[in-house]
């Protein structure tokens, strides 16, 4: 519904356009035909998609989805239920094309495709218990402070890479991907102290040296960089160097490392509707400003996710809006402050269920004197209740092992989460060693497209 009205203010008349949207509630009971899966409900409208709720569904019992949406368009709508699983059909034959009927197929997930990680700090270098606890769970890491400018160059010209070098070596040894956090921080409070007194020319040279030093050192070894941190709230470099400083930094970073995904990284965008500085509209405006400033290379959206209480309909709507930019979205520093076990479970389910979210990193690096806000483990590396929540998700999203039997024509069908897999065929109590195969299961280009794996003996 649309209303027009006029308001007299002094000598000026202001025309107001008031749009009144309709709010609808949605609920549904569902179950899956076999196994279990995270399910998201999505309405497809002429204006785009609206995600209204997620749920965890199992075979043999009913689960309830309940959510809401704002109707801001007219016309038909289609309801979809989606999962992050994909149907896979295996076909095993011998060299003559004859099916391996009734052969046993064993499927093992070697790595989750969906990146799910946590922050670490320098304490992990010499703490074997911390290392074992972390590597048993995560394949993605961000360094809490160790790559920040203030940590590496506390005095001008005196760089110390000892800690991040050792941490990166540890990560690589255990096949853990690392996000670079962060290249530059726009909050003056977190700049190296000596930087604040530099002239514009001196600051420009110092920034260029910083970018070249750390990015060339770790070129090709990181999956991503938070290029500019929190510059919707702060503007140190824009104020002291150039209004298009962000564009300049992204261009420099891209020239040095063409493989790392380059992120903006901001807080309160998905967490707090009362923060007018970091609204999704302002975030998208910042992206457009970087593009119009002349940077046209790869770009990604980082939203930190430091939650003080939950407003999941707002979070969902924000991600919907950010997704309109058609850029990768990561939750980069996820933690919760209140009702940690229940709130963390709810927010992880919410963001994981959104197809625009490409990765989640928790902000729960262990410290013996206490974590930033949320600890997953005690000082003996026994899970706290919130750590059990994390383990539950890892278990849900993983396939520890699946065994089945080929039918009479050599086919076997199942549904798997995206990831890297090993499949092994055995027959008559004999394992056929040359029928061990590895395959990657990725998000299909065509929705609900079946992945087919041919196994030839």
TrEMBL record:
SMART domains found in the cross-reference section: Glyco_10
Keyword Ion transport among record annotations: no
Keyword Signal: yes
Keyword terms, alphabetized: Carbohydrate metabolism, Hydrolase, Polysaccharide degradation, Signal
Sequence ranges assigned to domain GH10 in this UniProt record: 101-393
Name of the protein this chain belongs to: GH10 domain-containing protein
Domain of life the protein comes from: Eukaryota
Any one GO molecular-function label of the UniProt entry: endo-1,4-beta-xylanase activity
Similarity comment text for this entry: Belongs to the glycosyl hydrolase 10 (cellulase F) family.
GO process terms (BP): polysaccharide catabolic process
Source organism (scientific name): Escallonia herrerae
Pfam families: Glyco_hydro_10
Cleaved signal peptide residues: 1-29
């Amino acid at each position: 519904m649309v209303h027009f009205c006029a308001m007299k203010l002094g000598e000026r008349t202001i025309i107001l356009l008031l749009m009144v949207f309709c709010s609808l509630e949605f609920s549904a009971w569902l179950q899956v035909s076999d196994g279990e899966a995270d399910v998201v409900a999505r309405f497809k409208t002429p204006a785009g998609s609206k995600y209204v709720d997620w749920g965890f569904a199992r075979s043999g019992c009913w689960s309830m989805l309940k959510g809401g949406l704002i109707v801001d368009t007219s016309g038909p709508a289609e309801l979809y239920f989606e999962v992050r699983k994909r149907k896979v059909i295996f076909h095993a034959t011998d060299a003559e094309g004859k099916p391996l009927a009734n052969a046993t197929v064993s499927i093992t997930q070697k790595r989750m495709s969906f990146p799910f990680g946590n922050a670490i700090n320098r304490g992990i270098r010499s703490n074997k218990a911390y290392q074992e606890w972390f590597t048993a769970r995560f394949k993605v890491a961000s360094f809490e402070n160790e790559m920040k400018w203030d940590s590496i160059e506390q005095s001008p010209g005196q760089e110390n890479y000892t800690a991040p070098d050792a941490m990166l070596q540890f990560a690589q040894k255990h096949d853990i991907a690392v996000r670079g956090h962060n290249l530059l921080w726009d909050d003056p409070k977190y700049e190296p102290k000596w930087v604040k007194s530099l002239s514009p020319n001196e600051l420009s040279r110092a920034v260029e040296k910083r970018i070249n030093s750390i990015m060339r050192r770790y070129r090709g070894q990181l999956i991503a960089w938070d290029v500019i941190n929190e510059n919707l709230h702060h503007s140190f470099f824009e104020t002291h160097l150039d209004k298009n400083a962000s564009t300049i930094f992204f261009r420099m970073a891209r020239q040095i490392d063409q493989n790392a995904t380059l992120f903006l990284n901001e807080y309160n965008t998905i967490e707090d509707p009362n923060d007018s500085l970091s609204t999704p509209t302002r975030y998208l405006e910042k992206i457009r400003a970087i593009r119009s400033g002349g940077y046209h290379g790869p770009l990604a959206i980082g939203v930190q996710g430091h939650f003080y209480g939950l407003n999941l309909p707002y979070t969902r709507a924000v991600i919907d809006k950010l997704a309109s930019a058609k850029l990768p979205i990561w939750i980069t520093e996820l933690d919760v402050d209140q009702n940690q076990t229940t709130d963390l479970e709810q927010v992880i389910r919410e963001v994981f269920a959104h197809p625009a979210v490409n990765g989640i990193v928790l902000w729960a690096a262990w410290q013996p004197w206490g974590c930033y806000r949320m600890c997953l483990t005690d000082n003996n590396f026994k899970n706290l209740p919130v750590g059990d929540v994390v383990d539950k998700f890892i278990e849900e999203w993983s396939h520890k092992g699946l065994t089945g039997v080929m039918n009479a024509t050599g086919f076997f069908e199942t549904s798997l989460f995206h990831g890297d897999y090993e499949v092994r065929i055995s027959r008559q109590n004999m394992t056929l060693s040359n029928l061990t195969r590895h395959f990657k299961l990725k998000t299909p280009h065509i929705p609900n497209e079946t992945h087919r794996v041919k196994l030839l003996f």
